[in-house]
Write a structure and sequence with these properties.
Layout lengths: L4 H6 L7 E4 L3 E5 L7 E7 L12 H21 L7 E4 L15 E5 L9
Antiparallel strand pairs: 1-2, 2-3, 3-5, 4-5
Length: 116
């Protein structure tokens, strides 16, 4: 996988407003928020460019860590009870801009459907 901006954020070479971190995951505020709460949650490993690269036997713990982090962040930011949206974009037509698997946590307002 090629170097991405997220790789540099993980190594703390580029500043980010970090809201959550553990051994597997880093989460930070999106610099172009699409909702009052817009957090990017990324795995610290960089072997998955997109969700289509997911392999059950190799990556189940990574996805589990992303979802656990999302739930904790939503609680920490007091949006858990009201609800929130989790989004994983895949590929150009799916809206993916950075090719390092990541999840968007969006909340703080009513989400509309369809999303776009």
């Amino acid at each position: 996988m090629s170097e991405t901006i997220f790789s540099k954020i993980i190594r703390k070479e580029i500043p980010a407003e970090i809201v959550y971190e553990n051994e597997a995951v880093l989460a930070f505020k999106d610099i172009r928020p699409q909702a009052p709460v817009h957090i990017l949650i990324i795995p610290k490993i960089d072997e998955l460019e997109t969700i289509k690269d997911f392999q059950k036997d190799k990556h189940t713990s990574i996805l589990s860590s992303l979802f656990e982090a999302a739930n904790q962040i939503a609680k920490d930011l007091s949006i858990s009870n009201e609800g929130y949206r989790l989004v994983i974009n895949c590929g150009a037509n799916g809206g993916q801009e950075v090719y390092h698997l990541h999840m968007h946590l969006l909340g703080g307002r009513k989400m509309n459907w369809p999303p776009g």
